[in-house]
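User: I'm new to structure prediction. If I give you an amino acid sequence, what do you actually give back? Let's try with this one:
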Amino acid sequence: MRGHYEGLAAEYDEHWVYDPDYVPWMSGRIAEALRLTPTDRIADIGSGTGLFAREVARQIQPHHSILCVDPSEAMLRGLGTPPPAALTPIVASAEDIAEGRARLPYEQLDAMWLKESVHHVADPAHTLRGLAGRLAPGGRLLVAMLSATIQYPLFKAALARFEELQPDPAVIAGHLRAAGLETTLGHVEHELRIDRDRYFGMVRARYMSLLSTFTDSEIEKGIEEMRVAHPEPVLVFPDRFAFVLGRRRGEGA
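Assistant: Good question. You get back a string of structure tokens that encode the predicted 3D arrangement of the chain. For your 253 residues, that looks like this:
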């Protein structure tokens, strides 16, 4: 999977700016759910190029640099050279943070989020417990993930494989509760409008990690299936996310 993101790094941001409202919208929902304040010590676990951390920083103007944690150096280079003062790259996996193998500039964190990265974690229960242990009293942890089923205009085999691989948000919520966090499960939704040919190009570039499980010929066959099923020039579909929020008991927001 790391190889998938290493290859995608140079064009990763292009796959998420097709809708100018999407990144500000999602970043705003993350900041709202976590009740972020400028004084919080924050980490984006699985940040990639820092697309959402950068926008969160713009919105809340943090006093402490947001930690952008990702195992891919190529993805983190997307932060810029040097990165903005509001963002600090940390080359590490979620497991590294959970196990204390990565040195962080903050002893504890007031807030952290994992956006569409929990499905890459081999042992979610163990890793989320470790991440919860890095929270300060009153600290918050948000897992933002796609729902168990999606209404994307993908080919049937990709949709079926997504359902096979995607964790159940209710199970993730259970892991956070077992880690001792007060947990809630909610949903947010945004309507996407994407030029059909552009979306086909995104699929060909394997913009979703699950698409990396298909061969080139399977992708091309899938795109032909999509072309027949969706003759309309602009694809319109909902992007629905489960927001699993855990809060550590104690003082804090």
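You can read the tokens as a compact description of the fold. Here is one thing that stands out. The radius of gyration is 18 Å.
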